[in-house]
UniProtKB/TrEMBL annotation:
Name of a matching Pfam family: DUF2884
UniProt keyword terms in alphabetical order: Signal
Listed InterPro entries: DUF2884
Originating species: Dyella jejuensis
Protein name: DUF2884 family protein
Signal peptide (from-to): 1-22
Domain of life (superkingdom): Bacteria
Length: 251
């Protein structure tokens, strides 16, 4: 099964900033799903490559799986309606955590650069680029209504976009410092700058992960909601008779 915490894959927005990703929520809440989720006006759509059902649509009082209507008694209709309400209430909370994570990630990049001895022009340009990337990521998260926006190559592409915008600027600044040191005869300083650049690249990810641990209580606060969703889906079956299992809660 593809590990992907249901209703919270917007957390992958944090991966775009080099930080938290979907498996972190799976570790905290033990909530996983094989489905992607799209929130549409009036209905929720869950889809996956397989096995059947590959498409589940929930609307007020109705359930369709793979295009077939599923007969529902009054209790099942109530469960469907409550399930939808819970998901729609959960989505903005998930996005808020993702937005906070983006800010933390950008702050971490800024903090790392503060120790590089960058010249004023480079610092100003770095600040401009960080602000622009943060604004774009915030907009993407705010506009997203589907986990498809953050899965697989899409998340990697967003991360590459941020890194590709910032890394050359820092590399150029450190390179110029190293060249200046070497030309002045300070080979030791030139070597130290090269080591600093290597350390920045290799050590940033774990330092960022530590910074993002402040998000853990907010993520933990989502766990009871995910547990409630798991309970609400109990007894709901697809048109082929199989349990829906839109979300699984592990131990």
């Amino acid at each position: 099964m593809r590990i992907s915490p249901l209703f919270a894959v917007w957390m992958l927005g944090l991966a775009c900033a080099g930080g938290l990703h979907a498996q972190d929520l799976a570790k905290v809440c033990h909530a996983t799903s094989s489905y992607d989720l799209t929130i549409q006006p009036g209905r929720l759509v869950f889809d996956r490559a397989g096995p059947a059902p590959t498409r589940v649509e929930l609307a007020p009082g109705t359930l369709h799986t793979d295009g077939q209507p599923v007969p529902l008694n009054d209790e099942a209709q109530d469960r469907i309606d409550l399930f939808q309400q819970e998901v729609r209430a959960l989505a903005p909370r998930v996005k808020a955590i993702a937005q906070h994570g983006v800010d933390l990630a950008m702050q971490a990049v800024q903090a790392e650069s503060d120790g590089l001895g960058l010249d004023p022009d480079t610092r100003a340009e770095l600040g401009r680029r960080l602000a622009a990337n943060a604004a774009e990521l915030h907009q993407r998260i705010a506009a997203s209504q589907s986990t498809h926006d953050w899965r697989g190559d899409a998340a990697d592409q967003y991360a590459d976009q941020v890194i590709g915008d910032i890394a050359p600027l820092l590399a150029s600044a450190l390179g110029q410092q190293a060249v200046s040191a070497a030309m002045s005869g300070d080979l030791q300083q030139a070597a130290a700058l090269r080591d600093q650049a290597a350390s920045l690249a290799s050590g940033f990810q774990p330092r960022l992960q530590r910074r993002l641990q402040v998000l853990r209580p907010d993520i933990q606060a989502l766990c009871p909601d995910l547990q409630r969703l798991s309970v609400l889906q109990e007894g709901l079956r697809a048109s082929n008779g199989r349990p829906l299992n839109l979300i699984q809660i592990g131990r």
